[in-house]
Each structure stands twice: as C-alpha cells, then as structure tokens.
C-alpha cells in the first residue's frame, strides 16, 4: 500500500541518520519519501535503505547483462571483457543484497541473536560493495569515452546507495547490542509459572496492583494475536486448541515488542517460559535474567476443576485439551522450574486455599 505521508519530525529523523553515511544527500533523497513507514526506527530505516540498494542494484545488473548478451561472442575488446565481468560480479552483488534484505526482515525471529544476524548483514553488504568496486575496476584498461563513462557513472550511483545502506546497518548494529538492556533503563522481570488453571492470572493481578508491576500474560498476548487476525493467528489458534506450546519465535517476539514499547519497567511475565527451549530463545533474544520465579503448586484434580469452572469461553478449557496441557506442563515446564530452583530463584507457593490466603503467602517475597 501507500506509505503514510511523512511528518517533519520523521523526515528530520532520516536527515539526522543520513549524516552518518558517506553520501548524505543521496541518502536523504532516496529514503525521505518513506519516512512515514520508518517511524524513527533504526532497524526499519536500515531495512528500507537495503531495499533501495537492492532495487537499484537489480536494475543495474539487468542493464549490464542485457548489454553483455547483445555483444557478439567473438567480441574480444577490453570493453566487452569488462562488461562480461561486471555482469557476473553484479549478479553476485544483487544476491548478497537480497540475502541481507531477507535477514533484516527476520531479525529476532530465527533463534539466533540479533547481533549475529546483523553481523551477517554487514558481511554481505560489504561483499556487495566489493563486487561493485570490482566491476568499476574492470573498466580501468578500457579507453575513456562515452560508453565507459556511462557505465562507470551508473555503477557509482548504485555504490552510493549500497554504501549508505551499509552505514545505516552499522549504526543500527552499534545500538542494537542487547537491544533492551542497552537502554538507559534495565527492566525487572519476574516469571510466574504453574499448571493450567492453578491461579497464576488471579494472583498476578493482585501482585501487579499491590506492588506496581505490569502483568504480561503470554497466553493473553497470544489470544490477542488470534483475535486481531495477525499473520500468526491461525497457527496460534491451532496450537492453543491442542494444548501445545506455541513456537518460541512467536512468543519471544511478542514479549520483546511489548517490553520495549512499554513505559514501565517492572514486569510479571505469566505463563512463560513453558519449556527449556522457550527459556533458551528468551535468553538469546531478550536476555534479562528474572529476579524471582514464582511456582504455584497444586494437584491436577484441582487444576482440572478450576479450568472447567473458568467460564471464559476459552477453546482450550475442556477436559481433553486440559489433560494435554497438564501433560505438557509436566514434560516441558517442570524442567524450567527445576532449572530456576537450582539457580535459587524459585519460590514455590502452595496454591490450595482461598485467593486471599494465597496472596498472603506471596507478600513476604515482594516486601523484602
Ligand atoms: N485460590 C483459588 N481457589 C479456587 N479457585 C481459584 C483460585 N484462584 C483462582 N481460581 C479460579 O480458577 C480459575 C483459573 O484461574 P486463573 O487465574 O485464570 O489461572 P491460570 O492463570 O493459572 O490459568 C479461575 O476461574 C479462577 O477464578
Ligand atoms: O508462553 C506461552 C504461553 C501460553 N501458550 C499457549 O497458551 C495456552 C494458554 O496459556 P495460559 O497461560 O493463558 O493459560 P493456562 O494454561 O495457565 O490456563 C497454553 O496452553 C499454550 O497453548 C504458549 O504456547 N506459550
């Protein structure tokens, strides 16, 4: 669709960011018309710059290869040799820029650290620039004239946008290291675990109100994704209906976005991590050690009873799905609970009793 019309603060952001590139004017003119979509976000700006470089480089690559194809095969002039070589290295440059663009689109989604993904992009964009230089160098031995000037001039224009894109990736990489922790604020995070229906949400609401936390129920975030028709909605609904665990890439990405965009910095994360794999991906992408991990403990019959009485119209609150959720809890979540127990972060709470009684058991944890 059409990008939203730019506002002056958004174009200011692009102008300032372009100061760090080697060709600031080209940078600004090629990117400012998209400033509304960039929304002052360095990652989006770098991705956009790569997109612009990709389109210019593809165009150039087609141009050189067309000229190359229209030359007689017995044409052995230095010009034709240079054009053939250029056509080949430009094809490589386009591949490298395309790979970079795809990687930028998957930042934070692959299970690898963003840092690692960005270093790949830096490598590929540098290689693309080198290939473009190689093309120009090939014309060194060609005698000066209009055709040579035309070719070298066109490549130079592509090099400018490629170099700018690399510079914007570099500046983003400088700030993207551990994106959350490098911010001036360093949020406090507590995890709240326990089987289905044990009362995590109920107690989290009270803890959040009394002790000033932002309550993030990952189950609620996922249900919101379903009802907002996000691209992952169908797969999330299918996974939740079966009582299985949604892919870590999805949950961690959601959590990261919510934490990053929140004005507050004390979080109770309810119902996550549900597996050691969840925990690993969390550590790679968000990486903030939880201060406290609460474990609400209760027998399965009681959990089943509470789930079946919940009455919130949830697709997973039925006997069969809840049996599977209990099985998943035991097989995948208990190992996480053991992990935090070994790290001496775990507080096990007896979840049998009235809501008030249970809340009283929690007070000492938050008042010391
Ligand atoms: N201490 C308790 N005793 C009995 N029922 C409870 C208690 N705490 C919560 N419930 C009820 O059990 C159901 C599940 O609680 P909820 O907080 O949604 O659990 P979870 O977030 O762990 O899935 C809800 O209907 C809730 O009202
Ligand atoms: O980090 C999470 C949190 C929730 N879920 C899914 O959401 C469902 C409901 O989770 P929630 O914590 O809302 O409810 P509970 O199981 O505690 O009743 C789970 O069974 C999973 O299918 C998930 O996959 N990953």
UniProtKB/TrEMBL annotation:
Keywords: ATP-binding, Cytoplasm, Disulfide bond, Glycoprotein, Kinase, Nucleotide-binding, Nucleus, Pyrimidine biosynthesis, Signal, Transferase. Pfam families: ADK, PMEI. GO terms for biological process: 'de novo' pyrimidine nucleobase biosynthetic process; pyrimidine nucleotide biosynthetic process. Residues 9-168 form the Pectinesterase inhibitor domain. It catalyses: UMP + ATP = UDP + ADP. Its EC number is 2.7.4.3, 3.1.1.11. GO terms for molecular function: AMP kinase activity; ATP binding; enzyme inhibitor activity; pectinesterase activity. The keyword Nucleotide-binding applies. Belongs to the adenylate kinase family. HAMAP family: Adenylate_kinase_Adk (MF_00235). This is ATP:AMP phosphotransferase. It comes from Deinandra increscens subsp. villosa.
């Amino acid at each position: 669709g059409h990008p939203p019309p730019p506002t002056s603060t958004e174009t200011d952001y692009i102008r300032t960011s372009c100061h760090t590139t080697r060709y600031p004017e080209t940078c600004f003119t090629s990117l400012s018309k998209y400033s509304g979509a960039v929304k002052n976000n360095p990652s989006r700006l770098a991705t956009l710059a790569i997109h612009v470089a990709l389109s210019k480089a593809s165009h150039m690559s087609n141009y050189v290869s067309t000229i190359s194809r229209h030359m007689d095969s017995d044409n052995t002039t230095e010009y034709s040799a240079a054009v053939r070589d250029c056509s080949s290295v430009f094809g490589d440059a386009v591949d490298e820029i395309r790979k970079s663009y795809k990687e930028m689109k998957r930042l934070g989604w692959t299970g690898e650290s963003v840092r690692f993904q960005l270093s790949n992009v830096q490598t590929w964009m540098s290689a693309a620039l080198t290939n473009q230089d190689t093309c120009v160098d090939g014309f060194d031995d060609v005698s000066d004239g209009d055709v040579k000037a035309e070719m070298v001039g066109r490549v130079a224009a592509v090099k400018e946008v490629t170099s700018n894109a690399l510079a914007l990736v570099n500046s983003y990489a400088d700030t993207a290291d551990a994106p959350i922790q490098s911010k001036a604020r360093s949020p406090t995070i507590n995890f709240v675990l326990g089987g289905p229906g044990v009362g995590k949400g109920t107690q989290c609401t009270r803890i959040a109100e009394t002790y000033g936390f932002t309550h993030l129920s990952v189950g609620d975030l996922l249900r919101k994704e379903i009802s907002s028709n996000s691209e992952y909605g169908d797969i999330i609904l299918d996974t939740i209906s079966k009582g299985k665990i949604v892919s870590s890439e999805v949950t961690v990405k959601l959590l990261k976005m919510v934490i990053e965009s929140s004005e507050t910095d004390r979080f109770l994360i309810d119902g996550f991590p549900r597996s050691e794999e969840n925990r690993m991906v969390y550590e790679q992408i968000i990486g903030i050690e939880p201060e406290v991990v609460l474990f609400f403990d209760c027998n399965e019959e009681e959990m089943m009873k509470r789930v079946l009485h919940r009455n919130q119209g949830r697709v997973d609150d039925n006997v069969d799905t809840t049996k599977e959720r209990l099985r998943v809890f035991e097989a995948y979540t208990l190992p996480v609970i053991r992990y935090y127990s070994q790290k001496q972060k775990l507080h096990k709470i007896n979840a049998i009793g009235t809501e008030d009684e249970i809340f009283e058991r929690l007070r000492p944890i938050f008042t010391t």
